[in-house]
Specification:
Largest sheet: none
Strand content: under 5%
Distance between the termini: 34 Å
Order of helices and strands: HH
Length: 73
């Protein structure tokens, strides 16, 4: 089991992974259609976007929490 203190990092990892796989898949599909090599191109697009998205999620999450707290509190 992963210790609870790592929950925000694990959340960011999973969220960024799931979001980037969907968005990159849609983008590659719209750009190329279901052509030969689609899955490999999607994989490369996903991995490169995830490499950017994961650190950004970790950096932006605290700011987003503060904004949400102000808007709802």
């Amino acid at each position: 089991m992963i210790p609870t203190r790592f929950a925000p990092i694990l959340f960011g990892l999973l969220l960024s992974g799931m979001m980037t796989i969907v968005v990159s898949g849609i983008s590659v599909l719209q750009a190329l259609g279901l052509s030969e090599g689609f899955l490999l191109l999607w994989l490369f697009a996903w991995l490169s976007s995830w490499a950017v998205a994961f650190p950004l999620v970790l950096l932006i999450a605290p700011l987003t929490r503060r904004i949400v707290a102000r808007l709802t509190g």
